[in-house]
Design brief:
138 residues, seven-stranded mixed sheet, 3 helices, disordered C terminus
Length: 138
């Protein structure tokens, strides 16, 4: 069964939606590898302006190539949540990735966003060469 997802970046109104390939075992390896490189480059060059905008653009491109077979029809960017999203990935500017699972409230009223979802037990902190799972606040 294809799992759909949203990728949300802190301080950016744009929301990435992928209609398939959105399960954590598919998304997290790609997202973590990309973010590790992204944060290292930002730190190396000391460039921090427009980070939320750069993240949305570059994540869209990365996931376009990683998840689309040939036509990119499964990936979109917009400002509205899609009620069919199974997982919502929140990318924090503090280098964390939080995974949320859509609840019934979200399905009925997707504009609730993360408020209509349950936080997964894992939060990934990406910093430099380290990746660690930290306890998530519930």
């Amino acid at each position: 069964m294809p799992h759909s997802c949203h990728i949300i970046v802190e301080n950016n109104a744009a929301i990435i939606y992928a209609s398939r390939g959105g399960a954590p075992d598919k998304v997290l390896p790609v997202l973590e590898k990309f973010l590790d490189t992204f944060w290292k480059e930002r730190d190396t060059f000391g460039v921090y302006v427009d980070t939320p905008e750069c993240l949305i653009a570059q994540i869209t491109i990365r996931f376009g190539y990683a998840t689309c077979e040939d036509d990119f029809s499964n990936i979109r960017v917009g400002v509205h949540y899609n009620s069919t999203a199974d997982y919502l990935y929140w990318v924090g500017l503090d280098h964390t990735v939080k995974v949320w699972v859509a609840d019934e409230a979200y399905r009925k009223k997707p504009e609730l966003g993360l408020a209509g979802c349950s936080l997964w037990t894992d939060v990934t902190k990406i910093s430099g060469d380290e990746r660690s799972i930290v306890d998530s606040p519930q």
